[in-house]
């Protein structure tokens, strides 16, 4: 197996590209793909400050490393979600990564700062944990970017993530979500620009990048995401990809090129005028933002011990 670029011994195969790479040229390929995504979609402008949403997993740590390698002023922000040992391991891993490199990192504990955690919120609201998690992350990322004067929030969503979400949204024709499924969500009235620089790389590539760069990361998936339908969509798409390499790339980027505008215009037009949350002062379409409603609903409830899905009777 020979490297496509230098014809030396290759370490990794990227089947959708029909290419093999040695270590140096694989790392270069990853940097080039991120740079291409940033340039093609106008994600980050020269001189802008970037806040990276870091979880301790391979994607977010690879993203932070890649942005720094490309010369961007990128700092980290990590949230302790209170999901048992998983959250502690994730924040510890993120702290170690930042400390080794001397990069700025803010870590916020959800219960210490706002009086609740994801397992407790899921129990009180009787909704899936991912709902409370997503609401909390979006609010806190936005708030951190405003407090820190950042222009852009970057998340580690990769090609596999985006293809799986797109697949689910198309199956149900969730037109509102399809209208927002873009590599860039533009800034508006108090909300920072949201970007996904890893959309040209798959999970296998980000894992290999971390291994070759000597980046330790949390291997386990979030235990509260067990049974999440998007994990099932990933498995289905992986089966198709195995038989037809490049399918996920063609599906996602074909949507962006040929269909996304059919949904985006209506979604943007339907966005309500933004006011200010009466509780926290954040931009909100209602009198009270979704995060503050969640915090109020869970206020005063004792922490709920995290239980794996199979022990929750589901």
Can you walk me through this structure?
- This protein is α/β, with parallel strands linked by helices and 314 residues long.
- It has one domain (42-311): HUPs (Rossmann fold), CATH 3.40.50.620.
- The protein contains 13 helices and ten strands.
- The protein has helices at 23-40, 58-69, 84-101, 110-114, 118-125, 129-148, 159-171, 175-178, 203-213, 229-243, 247-258, 260-270, 290-298, and strands at residues 12-14, 19-21, 49-53, 73-80, 105-109, 152-154, 184-185, 193-195, 275-276, 283-284.
- A six-stranded mixed sheet has the order 5-4-3-6-8-7, with helices on both faces. A two-stranded antiparallel sheet has the order 1-2.
- Helix 5 packs across helix 13 (290-298) and helix 7 packs across helix 11 (247-258).
- The longest helix has 20 residues, at 129-148.
- The N and C termini lie far apart (46 Å).
- Mean pLDDT is 92; it is low at 309-314.
Main sheet properties: 6 strands, mixed
Distance between the termini: 46 Å
Question: Can you identify the CATH class?
Answer: Alpha Beta
How is the largest sheet built, in terms of strand order? 5-4-3-6-8-7
Radius of gyration from CA coordinates? 20 Å
Low-confidence stretches: 309-314
The outline comes out as globular
Secondary-structure element series: EEHEHEHEHHHEHHEEHHHHEEH
Based on DSSP secondary structure assignment, what is the total number of beta strands? 10
Q: Determine the CATH superfamily.
A: HUPs
The share of residues in helices is 40-55%
Strand content: 5-15%
Mean pLDDT: 92
Please give the count of helices: 13
What is the architecture at the second tier of CATH?
3-Layer(aba) Sandwich
CATH fold-level name: Rossmann fold
Label the structural class: alpha/beta
- Count the domains: 1
